[in-house]
Amino acid sequence: MEFTENLSTNRASDQERARVLANPGFGDFFTDHTAVIDWTANADGNGGSWHDARIEPYGPIALDPAASVLHYGQEIFEGLKAYQHADGSVWTFRPHANAARLNRSAKRLALPQLDEEAFVESLRRLVQADRAWVPTGEGEALYLRPFMIATEAFLGVRSAREVSYRVIASPAGNYFGGELKPVSIWVSKNYARAGRGGTGSAKCGGNYAASLVAQMEAEANGCKQVLFLDEFNDNAVEELGGMNVFFVMKDGSLVTPALTGTILEGVTRSSIIQLAKDRGMPVTERKITLDEWREGIASGDIAEVFACGTAAVITPIGLLKNGDELIGDEQATAGEVTMSIREELLGIQLGTVEDRHGWLEKLA
Ligand code: COI
After folding, report:
1. What is the tens place of the pLDDT at every residue in 211-240?
2. pLDDT band at 51 (very low <50, low <70, confident <90, very high)
3. Domain boundaries, the chain
């Protein structure tokens, strides 16, 4: 797909950019450009085509107030990162996995399929335009946020005939702020994130909207993230508000909830499974319940617990708060296995550890 380029005449100054890059935080600052591709359905309503691929200055989107995304939430998104290597080149991690997931989400949300190469090219063109924004501090990267929205102005409830795909970029440090340390997690009892046949395995804004009231409850209880359970399945552990969960067992194996259709198929999750198998660690994707978490911590059968995602990378979980019940230890130090997998993953992403699975793709 050919992109046209309309570069910004109002870029951040070197000083402004340096100020942001000195302390990027997460999700607060955005680069100078955005990538856009529009889609229009065919007149007969059968299929459609992508057109007007472009790089343009970052700025507000003009949307008709009747645009269906604003009413019915027909929206999906992705998250991946661009890393600067020691030689100054910029790479991203498994972008085809994100492209494929975007298309699975698109299918569930009745949005059009986007060619995987067009997806990767949109990242490449945006990062090339905004290369100066890739942060180089420890644990930092340029977070890329592709998303697709229904832009058609129409209030009937049907899939939109006009859609826009966009990518924005945001320099990012630790998702939880400050230094990496074990986080506390709140068990949501009153709210579910997803149900059978719902959109749990799709990366759509609605899942995150549904998590917010529980996330607020978590924060009110001094926790960084909320844990969702399947209360109709023995309180099986599902996932956190925006991350998957792993357990490092005393016997050296790794356990993570199986993908049942209500859990997001994380790219970081699948990469961790591969890295653990490469080490000869047995990995089991299965049902793991809140009871097993509680009993495993008490008996020592569960040695470490961590959260993972593109934004969170791998973040140790210290304490689980289930109402007044405390499982684990808020003051815990990060587990050895957790940190060693984290270092290997970051090493591959940053080009300091061999990329033996061919996961990296050069962007600039
Ligand atoms: C990510 O890890 O990229 C996510 O999408 C999780 C969250 C920041 C929404």
Report:
1. 999 999 999 999 999 999 999 999 999 999
2. very high
3. 4-172, 183-350
Contact yes or no for 264/308 (Cβ under 8 A): no
pLDDT number for residue 298: 97
**CATH class belonging to 183-350:** alpha beta
What is the widest separation between alpha-carbon atoms in the chain? 64
Q: How far is CA 276 from CA 239, 257, 282, 350, in A?
A: 20, 15, 7, 19
Looking from the CA of residue 77, the nearest atom of ligand 1 is: 5
Ligand 1 centre to CA of 242 (Å) is: 6
Residue located via tokens 């259709």: 261
Query: Does the pLDDT of residue 45 top 90, yes or no?
Result: no
Could you give the CA distance from residue 181 to residue 58 in angstroms, rounded to a whole number?
Answer: 34
| CA nearest ligand 1 atom 9, residue | 242
Q: Which of 183, 207, 212, 243 to mutate to test the pocket of ligand 1 (most atoms within 8 A of CB)?
A: 243
What are φ and ψ of residue 113, in 5° steps? -75, 140
Give the mutation target among 98, 102, 310, 313 for probing the ligand 1 site: most ligand atoms within 8 A of CB.
310
Element (H, E) at 272: helix 267-278
- What are 283's two structure tokens? 């990995």
Closest by CA to 63, choosing from 54, 75, 53, 51, is 75
CATH for the stretch 4-172: 3.30.470.10
Residue pair 240/227 in contact (Cβ under 8 Å)? The answer is yes
Q: Is the pLDDT of residue 177 over 90?
A: no
Beta bridge partners of 257: 286
Over 90: is that where the pLDDT of 179 sits? no
Question: In three state form, how does the secondary structure of 301-344 look?
Answer: CEEEEEEEECCCEEEEEEEEEECCEEEECCCCCCCHHHHHHHHH
Closest ligand 1 atom, residue 208 Cα: 9
